[in-house]
């Protein structure tokens, strides 16, 4: 019997995790073909920062080597960007002209870095930070140039700044926000983070807007001009100002897109033969850029593709954040800012540089922001996700997960 043909566009973490989950449930159900735009097998994109910092190698972060695809009978086309989808004929066409027929199609096209259209953004030495090629460019540039500017003080920007500093570059970070990682930290934790990174030699321009990039006579970037008129020298400019769902292919195919490929609770698009998973998908108005929600989506999509999806739905994810900078411990989850209807428990120890804020609403923990001591982060995250009433735990909540009475009893 001919198996139905499953084609996946995209070879990243969310898509390949979907295939892994599918192969557990229904290993022989489909004839699977994967198109990957990059010339690499599936790798752990969130570990690019340790590679940049010199703490890991590219081989260390490969998740599924080529042998895995072969062992699973998956046809893999690397370095092949899909340029069109014909929904009527149920075919996809790659840049080399290759056309492949599908019965079910997964869009796992991920996201694209947002490059602000400021004057000079096309100069040599101006890059985004998204993939292995970008990481190679930064490592190579650090060998021959001295001054780097990172535009964006979020997670990705700070990881890039730390990695470039580890590579010996002088690094400045330009950030529009009033404090670093304002989507993941409150002002107090953001200040502690800034002080820790300044101690490593990174400089910051906060509340600053980039107005233009200037180049030298060779066409390479040489400086960043800010809106207040100040100028920051630069041989390399890394744009880390956010990401956007990669929906161009889906839009051209006529799928419903709105800040992502719109999917239902099964991860199905407006075409019943096409599914979307990961950063390219918009579920209930949210496009997730963190790995944990994408893996939760993968399990749901795999169940439906396996024909075992009765009652299996994706209802959204509670997210948490960490920073992959060795020696800096921070964690946040849920509604860590709070509002007029919440209560806050705060521990601030400036001597040991430990800060903890727990946000409560109606006797449940709804948010946490930790800096310096994150050992209980996973426990707090579990309480937030489960919406558990904390009851008598309230007075002890700041001190972390209570040990069971018999944990340390002698035999």
Automatic annotation (TrEMBL):
Keyword vocabulary terms for this entry: FAD, Flavoprotein
Residues covered by the NADH-rubredoxin oxidoreductase C-terminal domain: 321-386
Matching InterPro entries: FAD-bd_OxRdtase, FAD/NAD-bd_sf, FAD/NAD-binding_dom, FAD/NAD-linked_Rdtase_dimer_sf, Rubredoxin_C
Location of the FAD/NAD(P)-binding domain: 5-283
Cofactor(s) this protein cannot do without: FAD
Single GO molecular function: oxidoreductase activity
Domain of life: Bacteria
Gene3D superfamilies noted in UniProt: 3.30.390.30, FAD/NAD(P)-binding domain
Family named by the database record: Belongs to the FAD-dependent oxidoreductase family.
Protein name: Assimilatory nitrate reductase electron transfer subunit domain protein
């Amino acid at each position: 019997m001919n198996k139905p043909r499953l084609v996946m566009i995209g070879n990243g973490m969310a898509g390949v995790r979907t295939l892994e989950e599918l192969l557990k449930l229904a290993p022989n159900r489909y004839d699977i073909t994967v198109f990957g735009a990059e010339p690499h097998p599936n790798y752990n994109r969130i570990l690019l920062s340790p590679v940049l910092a010199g703490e890991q190698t590219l081989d260390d972060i490969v998740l599924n080597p080529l042998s895995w695809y072969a062992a699973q009978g998956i046809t893999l086309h690397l370095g092949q960007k899909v340029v069109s989808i014909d929904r009527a004929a149920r075919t996809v066409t790659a840049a080399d002209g290759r056309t492949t027929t599908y019965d079910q199609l997964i869009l796992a096209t991920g996201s694209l870095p947002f490059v602000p259209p400021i004057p000079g953004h096309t100069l040599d030495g101006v890059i985004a930070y998204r993939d292995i090629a970008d990481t190679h460019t930064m490592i190579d540039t650090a060998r021959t140039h001295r001054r780097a500017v990172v535009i964006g003080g979020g997670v990705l920007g700070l990881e890039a700044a730390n990695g470039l500093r580890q590579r010996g570059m002088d690094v400045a970070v330009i950030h529009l926000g009033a404090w670093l990682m304002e989507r993941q930290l409150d002002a107090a934790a953001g200040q502690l983070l800034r002080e820790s990174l300044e101690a490593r030699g990174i400089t910051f321009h906060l509340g600053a807007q980039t107005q233009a990039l200037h180049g030298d006579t060779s066409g390479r970037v040489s400086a960043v001009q800010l809106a207040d008129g100040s100028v920051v020298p630069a041989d390399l400019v890394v744009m880390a100002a956010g990401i956007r769902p990669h929906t161009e292919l889906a839009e051209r195919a006529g799928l419903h897109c709105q800040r992502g490929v719109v999917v239902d609770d099964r991860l199905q698009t407006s075409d019943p033969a096409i599914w979307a998973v990961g950063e390219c998908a918009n579920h209930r108005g949210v496009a997730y850029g963190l790995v944990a929600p994408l893996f939760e989506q993968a399990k749901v999509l795999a169940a439906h593709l396996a024909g075992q999806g009765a009652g299996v739905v994706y209802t959204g994810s509670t997210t948490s954040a960490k920073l992959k900078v060795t020696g800096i411990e921070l964690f946040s989850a849920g509604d860590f800012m709070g509002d007029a209807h919440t209560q806050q428990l705060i521990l601030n120890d400036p001597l040991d540089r430990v800060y903890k804020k727990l946000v409560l609403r109606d006797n449940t923990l709804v948010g946490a922001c930790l800096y310096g001591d994150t050992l209980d982060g996973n426990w707090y995250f579990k309480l937030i996700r489960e919406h558990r009433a904390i009851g008598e735990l309230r007075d002890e909540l700041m001190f972390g997960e209570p040990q069971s009475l018999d944990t340390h009893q002698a035999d």
